[in-house]
Amino acid sequence: DLQWYAYLGGFVAFAIGAAYWSVSKEFQRRTDLGQFKTNIKQITVGDSFPMSDYLFNALLLFLFGFKFIYLVKNSGADFVPQEHLLTWEGELSWGIIIAAVGTFWRYQSDKKQRLNPPQKKEITLGLADEMGNITAIALISGFLGAKVFHIIETPGNFSFQAIASQFFTSGGWTFYGGLICGLGGVLIYAYRRGYSIIHVLDSAGPPMMLAYGVGRFGCHFS
């Protein structure tokens, strides 16, 4: 039911937050020790947010209102949330309202930080400053890997129709697939950015144990 889904999903979110915080702290510590390079980047302070920023935030807010409100309103003994997660069912009006309110708030924040004229400045960036990209890559490659490994582990599903139907369902995930592909995606990104793979592995190991431990609580509570 929705309570099970909320417990499991909540602790997964806590696990992602724990990983983000602990890995970024370790990346910064090792950057200060000289194990990771830093880059000088010129940025513009006080310029208006790009339209892509507004569109991306509006899309995320719309999806939250459209799907989450629908799951909450229809929760019940006979309602299985994961069966409705990847469907077109949702609350269109709530999605539009939440997206509109969030976009207005984003616009107000944009106005407050603007300068006339905008100023250019140089900042020093390290691997810890790329945690947003790293987290996104880990999530996308990890989720895809978990789904692909599940399909590979069930040989009877090797048909286009079976694979397509399983790939877009909320069930069928393999932990090791998520771990291997999520780690692989991050390492490829770090290597292409010129960071030491050995130091990345050494930095991320203990935080990953922390994140996995936090996530495991979701299994027990659900």
Question: What would you note in describing this structure?
Answer:
The chain has 222 residues and is mainly α. Helix content is 67%, strand content 6%. Strands 1-2 form a two-stranded antiparallel sheet. Helix 1 runs antiparallel to helix 7 (197-221) and helix 2 runs antiparallel to helix 3 (92-113). The radius of gyration is 21 Å and the shape is globular. The model has no long low-confidence stretch (mean pLDDT 85).
- β-sheet strand percentage: 5-15%
Main beta-sheet annotation: 2 strands, antiparallel
| Strand/helix succession | HEHHEHHHH
Span between termini: 10 Å
Strand order of the largest sheet: 1-2
What is the helical fraction, as a range of percent?
55-70%
How many alpha or pi helices?
7
Mean pLDDT: 85
Concise summary:
This protein is mainly α and 222 residues long. The chain is built from seven helices and two strands. The protein has helices at 2-32, 51-73, 92-113, 131-152, 160-167, 175-192, 197-221, and strands at residues 39-45, 119-125.
What's the helix and strand layout?
Layout lengths: L1 H31 L6 E7 L5 H23 L18 H22 L5 E7 L5 H22 L7 H8 L7 H18 L4 H25 L1
Antiparallel strand pairs: 1-2
Helix pairs in contact: 1-7, 2-3, 4-6
What would the keywords be for this entry?
globular, 222 residues, 2 strands, mainly alpha
